[in-house]
Amino acid sequence: MRKNEKGFTLIELLVVVAIIGILATLGIVSLNSARAKARDAKRLSDAKQFATALQLSDIEIPSQAVTGCTPKGLTTTCTSPFGDLDWTKFLDPSAVATACTEATAGNCGYSISAKDGVSAPKTDDFAVCFHTESASAIGPIGTYAIIPGGNIIATCPF
Fold it and tell me: For residue 49, which phi and psi values (nearest 5 degrees)?
């Protein structure tokens, strides 16, 4: 004679837990990819804001030097020619304190220089470099620069 038992067997419960674990792992993996793309979107947005601010300054006084910057240095040390832009707020989302250069192979902080990579930047002669973590509309993973005109080039010129 068989009892009328209610509930689940141990095997059934283990199968459900395993399925939930697999789904959670897939969710976390896709979330990490989305986070990398979000950081890249912020980097591109920041670079475009740099370029726009410098070009607007160039309209008022052409070829004005961007003060406080060292060639190939971090953008956080710079000050706008007219004091109207707080450069310290433009930080790479990875919070890396190493400046981007042509040789950068990983995350780096935004860097700025003249396009030649030797001179200090001016409002009409600059390259702001940043590094992407994932492939995007601008190209594969790598270091890029934005130059006057808002053009993005596939390498940091310094």
Answer: -65, -40
For residue 69, what are the domain limits?
10-153
Quote the number of domains for the chain. 1
- Report if residue 4 sits inside a domain: no
Q: How far apart are CA 22 and CA 112, in angstroms?
A: 44
3 — pLDDT class (breaks 50, 70, 90): low
Residue 41 lies in a domain: yes
3 assigned to some structural domain: no
Q: What is the dihedral of CA 88, 102, 153, 109, to 10 degrees?
A: -20
pTM for the model: 0.79
Is 146 in contact with 50 (CB distance < 8 Å)?
yes
DSSP 62-114: TT-B-BT--TTEEGGG-B-TTS---GGG---TT---SBP-TT--S--B-EEE-
Helix (H) or strand (E) holding 31: helix 10-60
> Does some domain include residue 125?
yes
